[in-house]
Inverse folding.
């Protein structure tokens, strides 16, 4: 079984890459589905080496690449679009407000949204990492609807108490907290911790 990673067109594509990197390094299998807008955002934020799901995976070590499967956004024959296909859960990272709205309404018009709908209906773990600021009432209502369905809403808010010294440290910390939500144990540094 794999974890499904949905990458939608919001800022913060690095979080999806780091999550895929850490899951595969931990020996987990990953299924990826990426929207067209996510590809555009990835190219703007990270450059052409990350502009597609294939290119994102190519940045991983060869042993990790073997643990990744990529599905096209409109391939409704993809196994992740069916509830009978068992998965360990799903993360939408980053999650655009358009994707959030669609998932909260049960609109399954692409494979990412369908996989999220399947995850909810089958009672599996879904973590949504919304990227927007400030949230308006519509955004908050959509998050509340999903929360009532058991979805974990995880805005990527930095943990200043961890005393990150770089943006990458803050990103790593956020991704490790997402892994905590999935129940995946990956050792990580808590910067500035008194237990160091």
């Amino acid at each position: 079984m794999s974890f499904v990673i949905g990458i939608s067109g919001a800022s913060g594509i690095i979080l999806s890459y780091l999550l895929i990197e850490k899951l595969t390094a931990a020996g987990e299998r990953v299924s990826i589905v990426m929207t067209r807008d996510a590809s555009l955002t990835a190219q703007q934020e990270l450059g052409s080496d990350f502009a597609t799901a294939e290119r994102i995976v190519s940045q991983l070590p060869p042993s990790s690449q073997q643990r990744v499967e990529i599905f096209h956004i409109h391939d409704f024959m993809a196994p992740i679009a069916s509830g009978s296909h068992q998965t360990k859960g799903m993360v939408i990272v980053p999650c655009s407000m358009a994707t959030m709205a669609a998932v909260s309404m049960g609109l399954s018009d692409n494979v990412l949204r369908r996989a999220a709908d399947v995850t909810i209906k089958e009672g599996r773990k879904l973590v949504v990492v919304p990227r927007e600021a400030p949230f308006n009432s519509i955004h908050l209502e959509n998050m509340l609807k999903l929360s009532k369905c058991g979805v974990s809403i995880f805005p990527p808010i930095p943990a200043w108490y961890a005393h990150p010294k770089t943006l990458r440290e803050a990103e790593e910390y956020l991704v490790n907290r997402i892994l905590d939500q999935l129940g995946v144990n990956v050792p990580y540094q808590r910067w500035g911790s008194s237990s160091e």
About this structure: The chain has one domain: 2-182. Residues 2-182 form a domain with the Rossmann fold fold (CATH 3.40.50.1950). The first strand starts at residue 2 and ends at 7.
